[in-house]
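Subject: Interface between my chains keeps coming out wrong

I've been trying for a while to get a sensible model of this assembly. When I model each chain on its own everything looks fine, but I need the whole thing in one frame so I can look at the contacts. Pasting all components below, labels as-is. Any help appreciated, I'm running out of ideas.
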Amino acid sequence: MAKFRCPVCGKELNIQLKTEKEPVGGLHEAVVQHEDHLVKIYVDADGFVRRAFPVEHFVRVDPPLYTVHIYEDRAEIIDRNGHTYITDPAPLIDAVKKITS
Ligand SMILES: [Zn+2]
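Reply #2:
Try treating it as a single job with all components included. I did that and got this:
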């Protein structure tokens, strides 16, 4: 379990990284999605996060029509032009449960 402070929003995060392989150059690289932002981290062989950077640009080539992020208190629907719509997560959670059960 690696613990680090998100460099974008300052919250403390825990991540679980599968580190069975030897890291290239001594550090594992990972991109972490936290809420609406992305962070790049470097984790050493002992599971400690050595560096954490905000990811400034995230480019999706051939983006989906809509991207949906569901959080505990809200859901965000992002269209392919980058417009974000905030909505009630409850009906979306129900829909996902129907798909996955
Ligand atoms: Zn964050």
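Reply #3:
Confirming on my end. The two ends are 29 Å apart (CA to CA).
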